[in-house]
Amino acid sequence: MPWLVLIAALFIAAPAEARDYCRGSLCFQKKARTACLKPEVWSILHQVTARFGKIEVTSGCDGRRSPRSLHHSGRAVDFRPMEASPRAVIAYVRSLPGVGGVGSYANGLVHADVGNLKMSWQGHGKSRRYTLRAKSRYAMQRPKARYASAGAR
Fold first, then answer.
1. Range of the domain at 122
2. CATH code of the domain covering residue 118
3. Does any domain span residue 125?
4. pTM of the prediction?
5. pLDDT bucket at 139, cuts 50 / 70 / 90
6. From CA 24, how far away is CA 126, in angstroms rounded?
7. Could you write out the three-class secondary structure of the chain?
């Protein structure tokens, strides 16, 4: 009889936002391949779940992207925060050491990668807005002119 209760609990209709499967605070869509994700990316995911709770990984090592995509090499992940606002999660991920690109999409997805370029974006396609972030406050300053202009003599 107890096994009947267990089986019934497994087949109860789940809410619409139910994910394909979860392991602790990490939920995964079936299409999200995560076998090739680098340890640095897993570290980002675990830090986000420790601070904000459950997230759903929607894209990992997917092959439908550009060949230059960091997703192919396991250095990028897309996820949806389930218990916090994407804006709060993005602000936190930007503050983590070793994080390169951080992006957000209109559907609530967050992109994080461990690439060398510190970059942020918002939106998708032609409406996307980019922001380059400096690794230090001096990195984005313009170099001083080496030669004075002819009119300044």
1. 19-135
2. 3.30.1380
3. yes
4. 0.69
5. very low
6. 37
7. CHHHHHHHHHHCCCCCCCCCEEECCEEECCCCCCCCCCHHHHHHHHHHHHHHCCEEEEECCCCCCCCCCCCCCCCEEEEEECCCCHHHHHHHHHHCCCCCEEEECCCCCEEEECCCCCEEEECCHHHCEEEECCCCCCCCCCCCCCCCCHHHC
